[in-house]
Amino acid sequence: MVELGVFFGVLGLAALWMVGIVLRRGKRRTETAEGLLIEQAHRQQAASDRASYSSTAIHNSLTHGNEYRP
């Protein structure tokens, strides 16, 4: 029974340690113009991917093959 308590204690400490790392890291912003342009391009690509690969787009397409096939 003691081993079980030690196990859960170590598990709890590991969880608290990971939460501390995530909270300490915070949400950093990019300051340079190059970084902002890269972030903007990634946001646009993610939005395009979400629209292209959504369930509606996949299941309601006319063909189920690869659209980039020659």
Sheet/helix structural class = mainly alpha
Helix content: over 70%
Overall mean confidence score, pLDDT: 81
Order of helices and strands: HHH
Given as residue ranges, the uncertain stretches (5+ residues, pLDDT < 50) are: none
Extended strand count? 0
List the quaternary state of the chains: single chain
Largest sheet composition: none
**What form results from the Cα inertia axes?**
flat
Supply Rg: 23 Å
Number of helical regions? 3
Taken as a percent bin, the fraction of beta residues is: under 5%
CA-to-CA gap between the ends? 65 Å
Describe the structure.
This protein is mainly α. It has helices spanning 2-25, 33-52, 55-59. The longest helix has 24 residues, at 2-25. The model has no long low-confidence stretch (mean pLDDT 81).
Layout: helices, strands, pairs:
Layout: H1 2-25, H2 33-52, H3 55-59
